[in-house]
């Protein structure tokens, strides 16, 4: 298996180098590029996934459909397509940015830090889902209003990046979502 690398960035989002993905997430994770994608089906439901219990960071946490890291030289849209297929066995379409400047830093219960410049995207499912069990333990389609209520009333039940994304883009989980152009 070929080693994956993440793109390290400065506070302004400028690329300053790369690092092996397997080594970058630690108690002192450097700021790096990532993306987060929320997937909706034809009925308007949003996909939520529970991260596999074997994941190094945030195991077993419920979150949005999927996240990932663009490889060096790879654009976000190509990375989204790649990770949707790898993680969920899913094809997506109508991918559009919702929050291009989202950034967060959070520490899980084991002390692993996420420190990411993480544009947020919204997409539509174009196929059935067949998750890789090494990535996703459980999944379900939810009414966006129900997920928004969970995020607002019980934020401890979901990932901190989902909480932050919902706060930064209040229309992310609504039919009236707004996109940045």
Task: Provide a compact summary of the structure.
It contains 4 helices and 12 strands, in the order ββαβββββαβββββαα. It is an alpha+beta fold and 181 residues long. It has one domain: Nucleoside Triphosphate Pyrophosphohydrolase.
Nearest-integer average pLDDT: 93
User: What is the CATH architecture term?
Assistant: Alpha-Beta Complex
Low-confidence stretches: 176-181
Q: Span from first to last CA?
A: 37 Å
Based on Cα principal axes, name the global outline.
Answer: globular
CATH fold-level assignment: Nucleoside Triphosphate Pyrophosphohydrolase
Number of separate domains:
1
- Sheet-strand content, in percent, reads 25-35%
Biggest β-sheet description:
4 strands, mixed
Helix count, DSSP H or I runs of 4 or more residues: 4
């Amino acid at each position: 298996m070929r080693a994956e690398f993440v793109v390290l960035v400065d506070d302004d989002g400028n690329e300053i180098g790369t690092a092996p993905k397997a080594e970058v997430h630690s108690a002192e994770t450097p700021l790096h590029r990532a993306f987060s994608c929320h997937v909706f089906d034809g009925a308007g439901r949003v996909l939520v996934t529970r991260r596999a219990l074997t994941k190094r960071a945030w195991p077993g946490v419920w979150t949005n459909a999927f996240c990932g890291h663009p490889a060096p030289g790879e654009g976000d849209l190509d990375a989204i397509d790649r990770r949707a297929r790898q993680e969920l066995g899913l094809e997506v379409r109508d991918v559009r940015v919702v929050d291009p400047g989202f950034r967060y830093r959070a520490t899980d219960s084991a002390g692993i830090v996420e420190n990411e410049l993480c544009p947020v995207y919204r997409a539509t499912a174009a196929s059935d889902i067949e998750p890789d069990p090494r990535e996703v333990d459980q999944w379900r389609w939810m009414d966006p209003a129900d997920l928004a209520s969970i995020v607002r009333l019980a934020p401890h039940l979901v990932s901190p990046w989902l909480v932050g994304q919902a706060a930064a883009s209040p229309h992310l989980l609504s039919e009236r979502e707004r996109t940045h152009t």
